[in-house]
Amino acid sequence: MQFMGKEDVEEKHVKRTQKDYTLDFKLRVVRELETSHISMNAISRKYGIQGESTVSRWLEKYGARDADGNVAALMLRKKRPLSGLEQRNLVLEHELSLLREKLKQKGYKEAFYEVLLNMLESGYRVEIYKDKDKLGIKPGR
Fold first, then answer.
1. Alpha carbon distance 2, 88 (integer Å)
2. Which segments constitute the Insertion element IS150 protein InsJ-like helix-turn-helix domain (predicted)?
3. Residue 34 burial by CB count (10 A; 0-12/13-18/19+): exposed, middle or buried?
4. What is the DSSP letter of 4?
């Protein structure tokens, strides 16, 4: 009879960064947690989620029950009308996410223009310089 070592039995887990956690990923983890009999700790290890409270927060935010398994308390909390501050907070969170997306897009545009300018300088021998007051283009040597 052959014995398997611990490394043969364990699944290989990938450490993740916060940037890896898409909404689809979060919802999939929450759905699996709610439909299976796997603990939060086991789910965290399975998906390589590092933060101890990360899955708990996802469950509270996206799940049909809270971290303690209380369905009724969460449902009651979702049904009560939001206070003025809570409504304002939701609006501000939405605006923040829109601004972050615009900033991300602007970063892509800047990178594109930088590559384009480098191509002009190297391929066409056009020297491009930036001044605080103006952007100028002058013929190359």
1. 63
2. 25-64
3. middle
4. P
User: Do residues 47 and 29 make contact, with C-beta atoms less than 8 angstroms apart?
Assistant: yes
pLDDT per position as a tens digit, 21-53: 888 888 888 888 888 888 888 988 898 888 778
Range 131-141 burial, b when 16+ CB lie within 10 A, else e: eeeeeeeeeee
Residue in this structure with the two tokens 């039995």, named with its chain if needed: 9
DSSP conformation class of 1: -
Question: Does residue 125 sit in helix, strand or coil?
Answer: coil
The residues spanned by each domain of the chain are 1-80, 82-141
Under a CB-based contact definition with an 8 Å cutoff, are residues 55 and 29 in contact?
Answer: yes
Report pTM: 0.38
